[in-house]
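Researcher: Let's run the pair from yesterday's discussion. Sequence first, then tokens, for each.
Model: Starting with the first of the pair.
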Amino acid sequence: MSEEAQPETRSDGEDKGGEPARDKAANSYDIGMVNDVRQSFNGRIETAYIGVHSSDGAGERAPKVTTSTGLVDDSDIEALGRFVQPDCFDDGLSQLARDQILVLCGPADTGKRSSALSLLREVTNETLYMLSPHVSVTELAEYEYEAGCGYVVFDRVVDRGAKESDFDWRLARDQVVKNGCYLVVTQPHEVTERFGHTTWQAPAAEKVLRAYWDQEWSPDQAAVLSEVLCTVDRVRDLVGLAQQLAGGSTLEDALNHLDSRVRAVVENWFDEHTDDHARISEITTLAFTVGVDERTFEAAHLRFKRLLDKYMPPAEPKAAEGEAQEGAAEAKRFYSTRALWRENDLVATVEIRTELGTRNAMVFAKSGYHRHVLAQLWRRMGVAFWDAVKDWLDEIVLRTQGYEFSAAGGLAELGAVAIGEVVPTLDHWARGNRGTAGQRAAVYTLYLMAQDDSLAPTALKIATEWITRGEPTHRWVGTMAFIGELGVRYPHDARRRLWQVCMQSHTVDGDVEKVFGELFSTLVRSSGNAHLVLNFLVERVKRFIRPGARPKTRTITARVVIAVIASRDENTKRSTVLAHLTERPEHTDLIAELLAGVLMHRPTREQALRALHMVLEDLARDAETAGTRAHALGEALRAHLPRDEHGALEEDLRTVAARRTKGIDIKSLINAILDALQGRGDNDE
């Protein structure tokens, strides 16, 4: 089995009153919105991580989204060289060897991913595949597995309302056994009473630390580490600690990077300021405006305080107290709000470069504070507070475009703490209740969630639900998510869901088939997995562009393929097909097979020829290899196009070329393709 098989506003935020103008919500393919989201996200994600997410100015690289379906990457296997087996490993291995299926249940960051891969590598040396986390046990019981191979589902999304029984999992086991393979599933929920499920525990903390940092511990280090390691509950923290120490950091500096230390700092701050209305509103504002300038932050803070006073009115002071408070207020009337937040140990500013020069950006003093601040707010604050937050986010997203990305960043972080609070807001925005501004913010949130290993499966579930059960506005926002970061993370799900949108195009207006071209372009640029789109469409061409297929289905299939052939990189404005073939020339045959299919579909033949002509115009820019590559494409076309179509194609291609009087002269490339097609020998011009 191949990897194919996979189930009007002001920039300063000043409120001038009244309801701002709202863009009409999008419910169809909108190239303007596509380009806006892509350019804004790519620019802001770099800004957000280079110099903004750390107060020392060093910053971090923007996280690279890793593909989580398809072939297991060689680097993941190589990383197992330092894998530390937990105490439960041998029992799990025995169970997997016996039943050929195993479900690891337990909290995040306990090493389940590495354990799953290591378990599979113990029972098979064949290829390992990752399946989508959005998979039901019924789908696992019907999947066509390849003999001898290993399959893994990371962080499977379990619907709370789903009824899964022992019988269901035994059916899945029977299918795995029947196909002679092995399946390991990891789940974040501790459900172990069902067949094949087992509680998974993290490996011993000291063993993990020593595996990644083999230096001998001094007596002082041993005393400190023995105490600290008892508080560490994430494997990634242990690996990070080891890397800090191996890199030359002092023990104290390295320990300060531990999540448990960061959590303690935030918790202590909240213990000290629980009743400080101003401080709480200030830190809440920052949680949803990271990266904005001081003026924008303060404007957002004022708005939030007004809403907070509405939902949680401060207690009326007694007469004597009131006079004292009025006096204090008068004394501090000119004391700057900016000076107040500068005294906050959790808050910092960094200088970042923009097109207009440099500016200060509001950030957390440590990026790790962000999620823990939201966790403390969720633990300590009630419904009225969160109602105020929701209304405030609605307001700032609608009024000022600059808030969209930072608000999305706060919601993505909150998703790790209280996803139930996040989903209604995203659903509200995706429905179009805050116009295209809210829709863009919803897309950004899913993009950011897709960059987090623990949140990505939830983002996948949200986008899938929007496409399968949502309104047209939902479907469009879900589609936008899949042609971006979510599609990079889950390319198999992306092509499946986008195909569903295209086949049900009556529910979404516009040239919806073009979304496949957008996905292909994204994968060419980001992941190297663009061939997954090509292989998927080759199968659809074989199935639907044939005599007897429904005319509408044939036309939609052809238009999807043409969208891919005609797709262009948003930055270079060059053909993404050529960019892909430059890296993967062996896929010329796939492109030729797709071209042959759409060229034989007469209603879209001219569109296909124009798309081919545009590819050749871009190819002509590389004079040294253009002729050779055009000839190779012609030979591949010859193999897939019936002989009786060769003459007609030559005539039609020359006709289309004759109509294009402007642009690059590609006559020699057309000759090269047609000579190879007709078997007239090579043409090196």
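Model: Moving on to the second of the pair.
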Amino acid sequence: MMNMWQMVVSYIPDWQVFLQAIVILIVPIVIYVIANKLQSTMGSQISQNTKSENKSEENSARNNKDTEEAKANPFIMGNYEADLAVIKQRIGTNCDVHFREFMIGGTDKRAAVIYIEGLYDKDLIEFQVLEPLMIDDIEGIENSSGDTKMTKTNLMNKMLPVSQIRETLNLEEVVTEILMGSTALLVDGIAEVLLLGTAKGKSRSIEEPLSEGLLRGPREGFTEVLSDNTALLRRHGKNECLQLTKFEVGTRVKKDLVIAYVSDIANSDLVKEVQRRIESINMDYLAESGYVEQLIEDNSLSPFQQVQNTERPDRVISALLEGRVAILLDGSPFALIVPVTFSMLIQSPEDYYERWIPGSLLRILRYIATFFALFAPALYISFISFQPGLIPTKLVITIIEARQGVPFPSLIEALIMEIAIEILREAGVRLPKPIGPAMGIVGGLIIGDAAVNAGLVSPFLVIVVAVTAISSFAIPTYSAGITLRVLRFAAMFCAAMFGIYGTVLFFLLLSSHLVKLKSFGVPYLSPVTSYRFSDWKDFILRMPFRVMKQRPQMMKTKDSDRKK
């Protein structure tokens, strides 16, 4: 019996264990009590703050009652003092908005000009607006009957030597035009507000496009100013049928957008579809044309771009003459071209500036480079890990000897080098221009040599990765190169799972996706799918211009003849 009790007592924990249990039980209770007290204290403070905020809101509501009533009225009231006060309430708190009030010369009429600092032409306002109205002894600003329409007519036709001038009663339009660089003129006795075209902001000069360099061809590219870009199109395409249609996009920050097309060439259904998609854009701000590209494309889940972007006016004009439509956004130097096919992303304007034989050779080289940029690492993994028998015996022996001591399988080995190259490429783009390219070259050499000496990768893989990187640089369109870089990793994983069969399976899946993909109703793989023999004259080979007499049939243009 005693032995049994001794056994029971031996299983009873020491008093330190009971103390730990009590502490563990008490600590959550203490934390809970403290949290409740803090919450009640904060609640009382929040209630006090809410009461004070409610009082301040009531006061501000009473003080701003006139402002809210003014905002509710979307029209100019025709009273000089009231209209000027409403505009000041809307945008007068901005430090860059200037109000210049003055008296019209020879009369007792008051007037005011409203403009944005940095967006106006100072000389134009001073010498073409203020000087005629202030210094000159203006007669006939009112006729004997006091007809304000005549006063407005005289002011617009006789007193203001400004090329762009229009009248409006819409308050929102007045505010928007002022914020976009126009000057608003309010005159006592005239109901309407006069909007003067005095916008003049600093902009970048026309330069050679950095992303689409050529050895032969025009050296000018688009800028961030929409009017400059449309002027470039007009200068390159001196044709009365070149139509430019303006839209306003952005629900909160409004921007101008222009679609360009040749009216007697472009298909009317294509133009209407582009206009419909532009009008359906519902976004508060479009910072760059890339926003528009993503909002109007057919399939946003596809890795392939369905809208081409370019900085070159000559490329845009060439596309317009094929029946395509261009989209230009204010503030972006990149124009968009729709519809687009995969072959367009491989082509370069230089193909047409050189004779057809070297142009065709360069195009074939780009197709080969596209294949290497996409499948070279995947084929390396397939042959090394699964099907070495497909490689010549001597080459296999050389590769195996070079891989002696490499601790990683071929997939990890390829991933290490590919990720390193991608990081170096991204770093070279973000670094300052003088040191970016040098850093990419030196970094690639150092990392490759160090990885081989450390036994992490084989020398043969370094060659494969280098050929892949160089091939990706041969693609003229930067966005298409990014797509191939993403798909390259998918091809590598397929090859790591199934070898050469996985690579072929990936190619078949990619081809089936491309066959079904369309850009504004045009098959993405045209002219391969929807076979049209005439379109093959400008596909893999660039045939002589004497042979290329027809526009692409895929575009279904109104006028299909290039030559008359």
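Researcher: Give me one sentence on the second I can quote.
Model: The chain is about 50% helix and 10% strand.
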